[in-house]
Design goal:
Blueprint (H helix, E strand, L loop, with lengths): L20 E3 H8 L3 H11 L6 E2 L7 E4 H14 L2 H13 L4
Antiparallel strand pairs: 1-3, 2-3
Helix pairs in contact: 1-2, 3-4
Length: 97
């Protein structure tokens, strides 16, 4: 049996054309919501658009950082005053306050 091919890691420096992506857990954490709420409510409603889904029935969803920030900005516009600052911070810098 032959050795599997070694793949080179992809980075922004080597492949600037490849978008930065995060998984469901990280996207949910950035948005301050549960993974369940993201997958059962926001994706079907079209609030957050996945970049890709990994193969298989339980394959992970992948999201671009740009999409997570866009969704947060949209939520800030729609949110009441109580949550507006939260969504705006995420849209600005991915949730790092």
């Amino acid at each position: 049996m032959s050795e599997p091919e070694q793949l080179e890691p992809v980075s922004r420096e080597t492949r600037p054309d490849v978008p930065e992506v995060v998984g469901t857990g990280q996207a949910a954490a950035m948005l301050g919501i549960s993974r369940d709420y993201l997958t059962r409510r926001l994706i079907p409603a079209g609030v957050v658009r996945p970049f890709a889904k990994m193969p298989g029935p339980t394959g992970a969803w992948l999201f671009t950082l740009e999409e997570v920030r866009r969704a947060a900005a949209a939520q800030a516009t729609a949110a009441g005053n109580r949550w507006r600052g939260h969504w705006e911070a995420i849209a600005r810098n991915g949730g790092a306050e």
